């Protein structure tokens, strides 16, 4: 710890706010300072770091290259400090709180009933659901850019850095257009003869069906790949293509699109939908409250 630079943390707080707002006036208001005091503090920070940090252009304070590099390191650290200080306080849902959740379009769809109920009960709670761009974004959880990940896996996995809550297990079905002629008898031979749509949330070239077929030394032909599960059934309308996807959603969407539901002619492993969060936040009152609300809504032990 002896090599930590000796710098006033309030100056770094000013840097973070000014970097975000690009305005000394707005920064002074947010920090409850006079504009003069804010300007003096910025001068001290410039002298301490030996860089101009922000340059005024057209009434806007633009960050220098050094300030951009500094922000990459300092802002995540300040978030961690802020979170650490908050964790010492009890969570009060009557205060304004925001939860950031990463999910695929499918797991976001699964979350909708819970989130609707939560936001109806607690008017000061807000939720931002962002696209889950990788299966488990561990770094984003660690850096507090995310509170929760709602993802899925096909086999039980343990992580030293992540805590997880099992939500539900689901199976797969195969969809096809009901007007396909001749009537579809979904044998393995027919399954392999047809063209397929692949749902690839993270742009992977193979899915669980392909990996399962490979174990039998079989290959299907994927003619279309999409990261969007909720819109994938539309792709097989008026075609002779096949789509293998979670039964939970398929059973709701198939009647609307005039699609037939079949059991795949191979044993595709069930998927498991889970909530993940970073283990260092396991006792964070904010997360504990959210997870407890989730457990109660779904009656999970």
Automatic annotation (TrEMBL):
<dbReference type="GO" id="GO:0003677">
    <property type="term" value="F:DNA binding"/>
</dbReference>
<dbReference type="Pfam" id="PF03466">
    <property type="entry name" value="LysR_substrate"/>
</dbReference>
<dbReference type="InterPro" id="IPR005119">
    <property type="entry name" value="LysR_subst-bd"/>
</dbReference>
<dbReference type="GO" id="GO:0003700">
    <property type="term" value="F:DNA-binding transcription factor activity"/>
</dbReference>
<feature type="domain" description="HTH lysR-type">
    <location>
        <begin position="7"/>
        <end position="64"/>
    </location>
</feature>
<dbReference type="InterPro" id="IPR000847">
    <property type="entry name" value="LysR_HTH_N"/>
</dbReference>
<keyword id="KW-0805">Transcription regulation</keyword>
<keyword id="KW-0238">DNA-binding</keyword>
<dbReference type="Pfam" id="PF00126">
    <property type="entry name" value="HTH_1"/>
</dbReference>
<dbReference type="InterPro" id="IPR036388">
    <property type="entry name" value="WH-like_DNA-bd_sf"/>
</dbReference>
<keyword id="KW-0804">Transcription</keyword>
<protein>
    <submittedName>
        <fullName>LysR family transcriptional regulator</fullName>
    </submittedName>
</protein>
<comment type="similarity">
    <text>Belongs to the LysR transcriptional regulatory family.</text>
</comment>
<dbReference type="InterPro" id="IPR036390">
    <property type="entry name" value="WH_DNA-bd_sf"/>
</dbReference>
<dbReference type="InterPro" id="IPR050389">
    <property type="entry name" value="LysR-type_TF"/>
</dbReference>
């Amino acid at each position: 710890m002896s090599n930590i630079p000796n710098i006033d943390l309030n100056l770094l707080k000013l840097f973070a706010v000014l970097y975000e707002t690009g305005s000394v006036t707005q920064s002074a208001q947010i920090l409850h300072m006079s504009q003069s005091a804010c300007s003096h503090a910025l001068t001290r920070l410039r002298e301490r770091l030996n860089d101009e940090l922000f340059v005024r252009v057209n009434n806007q304070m633009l960050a220098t290259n050094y300030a951009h590099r500094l922000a990459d390191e300092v802002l995540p650290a300040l978030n961690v400090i802020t979170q650490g200080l908050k964790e010492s306080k009890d969570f009060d849902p009557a205060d304004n709180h925001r939860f950031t959740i990463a999910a695929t379009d499918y797991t976001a769809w699964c979350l909708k009933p819970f989130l609707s109920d939560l936001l109806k009960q607690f008017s000061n709670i807000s939720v931002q659901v962002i696209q889950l761009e990788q299966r488990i974004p561990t770094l984003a959880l660690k850096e507090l850019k995310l509170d929760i990940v709602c993802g899925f896996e096909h086999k039980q996995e343990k992580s030293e850095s992540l805590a997880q809550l099992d939500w539900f297990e689901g199976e797969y079905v195969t969809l096809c257009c009901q007007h396909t002629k001749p009537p579809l008898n979904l044998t393995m031979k027919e399954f392999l003869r047809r063209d397929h749509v692949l749902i690839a949330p993270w742009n992977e070239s193979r899915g669980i069906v392909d990996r399962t077929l490979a174990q039998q030394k079989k290959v299907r032909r994927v003619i279309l790949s999409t990261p969007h599960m909720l819109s994938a059934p539309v792709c097989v309308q008026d075609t002779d293509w096949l789509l293998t996807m979670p039964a939970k959603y398929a059973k709701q969407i198939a009647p609307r699109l005039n699609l037939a539901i079949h059991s795949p002619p191979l044993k595709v492993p069930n998927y498991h939908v889970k909530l993940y969060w970073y283990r260092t936040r396991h006792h964070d009152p904010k997360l504990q409250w959210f997870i407890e609300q989730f457990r109660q809504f779904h009656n999970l032990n």
